[in-house]
Amino acid sequence: MTTLAVWKFASCDGCQLSLLDCEDELLAVADRVRIAHFPEATRATEPGPYDISLVEGSITTPGDARRIHEIRAMSRILITIGACATAGGVQALRNSADVAEYASVVYARPEYLDTLATSTPIAAHVDVDYELHGCPIDRGQLLETIGALLVGRKPDLPEHSVCFECKRRNNVCVVVAYGEPCLGPVTRAGCGAICPAFRRGCFGCFGPAERPNDEAEAALLESTGMSGPDIERMRRLFDPGTEPVGGTS
Amino acid sequence: MTHRHDRLIDVPGLARVEGEGAMHVRVRDGEVEDVRLEIYEPPRFFEAFLRGRRHTEPPDITARICGICPVAYQMSACAAIEDACGVTVPPTIAALRRLLYCGEWIESHVLHIYLLHAPDFLGYDSALDLARDRRDLVERGLALKKAGNDLMEAIGGRAIHPVNVRVGGFYRTPAPADLAPLRERLRTALDQALETVRWVAGFEFPPFYHDHEMLALTEPGRYAIESGSIVTTGGLEFGVRYFERHVVEEHVPHSTALHAHLAGRGRYLTGPAARYTLNQRWLSPLAKEAAEAAGLGTQCRNPYRSIVVRAVETVYAVEEAIRLIDAYEPPPFPAVPVPSRAAAGYGATEAPRGTLFHRYELDADGMVTSARIVPPTAQNQAAVEDDLARFVAGRLDLDDHLLTHQCEQAIRNYDPCISCATHFLDLHVERS
């Protein structure tokens, strides 16, 4: 039986929780794969190698930068799940800041901490086979990916923008109708355009779509009355950028 | 083996808890010398990068601290920022927030009862193993959990990191017709929740008790969830804005969580057992009846029985959600304006795992200049370590394998959320 392992790095647990949130499908999935390592769900653990590894979280400590290589070596297919694993997550906001100063703000004794200056995606350290984006990931995409791999086909994961999902869902465009700032045109689809359905602009939690038109997006945001720093903060929350990143690989 | 006087017991990676931690116990000359709940979940520095963000941003950002209780973060953040700005949301918006929060209590409590905690009492490694023998039980738990998630999706847009919460209220409020199908599902969930109380009440609870001071929000007339002031079993009473005067945090070397104490008083416990002990008179008649039938009594000081309290609180949350849906009146506006001002604001709500405190300072431009977040698991860490020291001391005749397993179970009694506390656990018992 196909073996599945779930791993955690710096994260909120939400993406692996998405698997336990598949209330209607969880037991059926457990009938078809052997859950060999999933500490949040079971204390039983089997040694690798594993057919499929789901990796949540970003790399933020020297120990984790080493551990991800061990996990890669034990995994036939490695899938990163969620914004932390695929892009560094909200904690990558540290990447443009002074981490020593950050540590001193939060912790009385920063010298007790062992942390890297950056929060980096898994792919900055090891080869990744598939990426599931989102903060959190979409349950449907997770089930699609596991299901596809079980029958040996490529998962159907969209690369277009949230705008397409709005059209499909018959959402009114929140920029046009309400003047709400929206990152939908430059954000990867997958959530089902939830925010616009709630009359709120997309805030980019699935990360950038393929080939985003950044200039047009900047003009669009300005047209809603947003200023430069507000635009920068909105765009960077789940997209720390693609500058060369630190790390050990 | 069972008579060694010096031992080191290590659980390097605790399973069935949220986040990453470990436990070390050092035994020397037959005495427990040190117990450390280690939190090696990496630091994520939320309080640092919240600085310089606009006052409207903390609900979305702090939700990302925890995938299991994002609504708690959103609600404490909104409460603190609205406090800073001198805004009180109308009762219709407050009621919708409480309804969303009921969804999170149901989802989180049922996750812990069925998937994380119950397997310990029944001798299984996981709920998935339990499902091989008793699929009906696990299916009941998953259906009940789904009722909570459905509620969160209907009001919040999604169950993990809901998108519909904003400072001042919501982006879009549901029409009464949107909530009607939920009401039917919650009727079924109420039966499942009552069955859950009866089921867990029949578990065997080792006779282990603590005398910690317990702390919770309280509110006259109803079981406190999203608002209230703070009380303790030791007789302290104070408003949320005085939290930092009474709760002091210290940074210990073995943890990326900060340990909290009550100033001049020491360790304390927050969470379901504290809420039940302090606020049970405000439970609904049905939840009270279920608690009484389950043998809970007037207080809960046996950590193992916390599973019964979670089940009783699930009954309460389901019933309260039905009540709120029946009474629902769509607010005239989804949100009220919250113009910023230079001020500090304080907010606390009852996350499923206990009191969650936020403080923000804003400047005249509405930017956050300082943020402080005190999650429940960090508040509980000192009390949990104290319990573990006494727990191990009473079980030194057990071999390492059994002792380690029992320590893990003892930790899971507290439903520690390490993702939250990390700024928060590995089990080592060292008998050197």
Automatic annotation (TrEMBL), chain A:
<keyword id="KW-0560">Oxidoreductase</keyword>
<dbReference type="GO" id="GO:0016491">
    <property type="term" value="F:oxidoreductase activity"/>
</dbReference>
<dbReference type="Pfam" id="PF01058">
    <property type="entry name" value="Oxidored_q6"/>
</dbReference>
<dbReference type="InterPro" id="IPR006137">
    <property type="entry name" value="NADH_UbQ_OxRdtase-like_20kDa"/>
</dbReference>
<protein>
    <submittedName>
        <fullName>Coenzyme F420-reducing hydrogenase gamma subunit</fullName>
    </submittedName>
</protein>
<dbReference type="InterPro" id="IPR051349">
    <property type="entry name" value="Hydrogenase_assoc-protein"/>
</dbReference>
<feature type="domain" description="NADH:ubiquinone oxidoreductase-like 20kDa subunit">
    <location>
        <begin position="12"/>
        <end position="148"/>
    </location>
</feature>
<dbReference type="GO" id="GO:0051536">
    <property type="term" value="F:iron-sulfur cluster binding"/>
</dbReference>
<dbReference type="InterPro" id="IPR037024">
    <property type="entry name" value="NiFe_Hase_small_N_sf"/>
</dbReference>
Automatic annotation (TrEMBL), chain B:
<feature type="binding site">
    <location>
        <position position="423"/>
    </location>
    <ligand>
        <name>Mg(2+)</name>
    </ligand>
</feature>
<keyword id="KW-0560">Oxidoreductase</keyword>
<feature type="binding site">
    <location>
        <position position="69"/>
    </location>
    <ligand>
        <name>Fe cation</name>
    </ligand>
</feature>
<feature type="binding site">
    <location>
        <position position="420"/>
    </location>
    <ligand>
        <name>Fe cation</name>
    </ligand>
</feature>
<feature type="binding site">
    <location>
        <position position="417"/>
    </location>
    <ligand>
        <name>Ni(2+)</name>
    </ligand>
</feature>
<keyword id="KW-0408">Iron</keyword>
<dbReference type="InterPro" id="IPR029014">
    <property type="entry name" value="NiFe-Hase_large"/>
</dbReference>
<dbReference type="InterPro" id="IPR018194">
    <property type="entry name" value="Ni-dep_hyd_lsu_Ni_BS"/>
</dbReference>
<keyword id="KW-0460">Magnesium</keyword>
<dbReference type="Pfam" id="PF00374">
    <property type="entry name" value="NiFeSe_Hases"/>
</dbReference>
<protein>
    <submittedName>
        <fullName>Coenzyme F420-reducing hydrogenase alpha subunit</fullName>
    </submittedName>
</protein>
<feature type="binding site">
    <location>
        <position position="47"/>
    </location>
    <ligand>
        <name>Mg(2+)</name>
    </ligand>
</feature>
<keyword id="KW-0479">Metal-binding</keyword>
<keyword id="KW-0533">Nickel</keyword>
<feature type="binding site">
    <location>
        <position position="66"/>
    </location>
    <ligand>
        <name>Ni(2+)</name>
    </ligand>
</feature>
<dbReference type="GO" id="GO:0016151">
    <property type="term" value="F:nickel cation binding"/>
</dbReference>
<dbReference type="InterPro" id="IPR001501">
    <property type="entry name" value="Ni-dep_hyd_lsu"/>
</dbReference>
<dbReference type="GO" id="GO:0008901">
    <property type="term" value="F:ferredoxin hydrogenase activity"/>
</dbReference>
<feature type="binding site">
    <location>
        <position position="373"/>
    </location>
    <ligand>
        <name>Mg(2+)</name>
    </ligand>
</feature>
<feature type="binding site">
    <location>
        <position position="69"/>
    </location>
    <ligand>
        <name>Ni(2+)</name>
    </ligand>
</feature>
